[in-house]
Amino acid sequence: MLRLTQTQARAHILGRHGLSQPYATPLEALHAVFAIQTQYSASLPTALAFRVKSFKPTWHKKEENKTVLKSWTLRHTLHAHTAADFAVAMGAIGENFFLRFCRWMEGSEGLTEAQVRERCAEIYESLSAGALTRTELHEALPALKEVPMAGWGADVKGLAYLGKLKLIVSDGGATRFARHDCGELPDRSTAIAELLRRYFSAYGPATIADFRHWTGLLKSSVMPVFESIQDEFTPVEVEGMPGDRFLHGGLVEGGVPRVNLLAKFDPLTLGHADKTLFLAEKDRTKVFRIAAQVEAGVLVDGKFVGTWRLNRKGKGAEVVIEPFRKIAKARMPGLEREARKAAKSVGLNLSSIELR
Length: 356
Fold this sequence. Notes:
By secondary structure, the protein is α+β, with helices and mostly antiparallel strands. It has two domains: 16-179, no CATH class; 259-355, no CATH class. Helix content is 38%, strand content 18%. The strands form four sheets. Strands 10-11-12-13-14 form a five-stranded mixed β-sheet, covered by helices on one side. Helix 3 (43-49) crosses helix 13 and helix 8 crosses helix 10 (219-229). The longest helix has 27 residues, at 83-109. The termini are far apart.
């Protein structure tokens, strides 16, 4: 049994996330956290900018970064992955999520699984000549216009869960859908095992409940696999925190940064069911807002002390911080450095930073 203070646990996770020990490239940072939720388009570059030594807003145009895929994966939501990690995600959750999607389609449209598969095949065929916007896809297949919650992806999620659909990562404009070929996927148990290793390396010490929250997988899918490889994981007791916690791999040495900014829908914010290691329960509703919004966070000594937002001012950016409590003036230089990264991530220069 490894015993850690909460500060040590925070230091390890922040290190693995590149928030105290930045990665050399965006791909390394993305691989480290496995996935970045991206229904808010700026979340991807901003989350990466905080985790990379020198981030350029044109990062995705480099040839090696064209392997980044955006599709519906963890928790049935849009995420960006490296191509290899997307295949792991599909092997672990794809079949399960596809069958859940079929049950939802049966309830909402009365379609059988066979009919859902037929529709997926039609979508795939419609994309044979190249990527299409949602409007173009609906023009090709008018039935998709009638799908409930189509704007949230219900029109194309089935094909995504089969591992055959990606969204084009671009500089803006309408979302475009394209074909994807994962190749031969790992079998489900092998993929879940790899997902467990990756999660407990980057997000551990954590519980199985945390892992299930992060993935959206059921306990019945997770526990048999975890029990078969449990000897690979180190049991951890974190001071003052309940539950059986585990870690995979070695512990990151080093301290907790004095200041960090996190993106909206940041992997660190979304990575655990029990968020109290980083976010006090009394402050939870200030970060997790109505309409499923997850605010961009301000960390001081590894704990949430506020949220922030970026306002465009011509070619410049104003970063506004809304603290939950007073932030010491000594933290302002660190906040300004982080705010510059945030502005740069979307191709802007920081014009001002304000505490409300």
